[in-house]
Amino acid sequence: MIGLWLENQILSLRHDLQLPGVGTGEALIRPRLAGICSTDLELCRGYYPFQGVPGHEFVGEVVEAPGAPEWIGRRVVGDINIACGQCTACLAGRPHHCLRRRTLGIHAWNGCFAEYFTLPVSNLYLVDPEIPDEAAVFSEPLAAALEIQSQVPVQAGMRVLVVGAGRLGLLAGLSLALTGCDLAVVARRPRPQVILREHAIPYLAAEDIPPHQADVVVEATGSREGFDLARLAVRAGGTIVMKSTFKGDTRLNLSELVVDEITLVGSRCGPHPEALRLMQTKAIDPCRLIDAIFPLADGLAAFEQAAQPGTLKILLRP
């Protein structure tokens, strides 16, 4: 089996990978498209010591499902968190925070940048025929963007700023715009500015951020500097939603956060059904974010392109 392999921060293309075994309750999936995201790039930089096949954004077809033949041939996306179902977090209804959690292509579970991969059937969601593969592959990052609204009650008229107009920042902006909030996005590159303008979403440069005005700031830069901008923008008593994952640390003035009563919200995975619904109704069409589609055999070149400043979404096709 062909696939990408990450080991000691070195990404390689291998032709000798074993076809994954499929246990009862699991599905063997052939990806139709897979997306490279910032977390994948950060894994290559040492964000987390992962060894194996990376990749967690996909739309695929089930080719084998022991004990669940009704899934065979179905087009699916999936939750990337593989929970044990037995720990205190799982029993409390928080499987995304399972104490023994494994994560597709990120921690202890081979991902989708290969000809085949597996996931539990319970993690899968059917994709409506009206949603093309090029949109469905965005289900995971769009769900992550929607998680913001499940954590913070964003309402019409609230002043909301998204810091960062990359892959996730744009999806956050597109989804937040549906709430009717007073939204702006920090965007410095022409391509994101064009997409925002097409959706009538105001954008501004970092140096033009009004200080201490925003009720909610979403930090999606993938950089240490992003938090400083978010801290500048948020008002006293406001909320900063953290969406960045990157290698390294950032410094916080905790006293300032205490004095100004700032709420910090870590935000990760979100609701696939809502993401699929928004794409089916075309309330959100993420296809404009696609820069290129590479064959899996050219996966190393795809990663090089994805890492270039200003690149939005690069997809792989097995």
Q: How would you describe this protein?
A:
The protein is an alpha/beta fold. It has two domains: 3-126 and 285-317, Medium-chain alcohol dehydrogenases, catalytic domain (Quinone Oxidoreductase, Chain A, domain 1, Alpha-Beta Complex), CATH 3.90.180; 143-266, NAD(P)-binding Rossmann-like Domain (Rossmann fold, 3-Layer(aba) Sandwich). The chain is 25% helix and 27% strand. It has ten helices and 17 strands. The strands form four sheets. Strands 3, 4, 5, 8, 9, 16 and 17 form a seven-stranded mixed beta sheet that branches. A six-stranded parallel beta sheet has the order 12-11-10-13-14-15, with helices on both faces. A two-stranded antiparallel ribbon has the order 1-2. α7 (224-233) links the parallel β13 and β14. It is globular, with a radius of gyration of 19 Å. The mean pLDDT is 95.
Characterize this entry briefly.
With 318 residues, the protein is α/β, with parallel strands linked by helices.
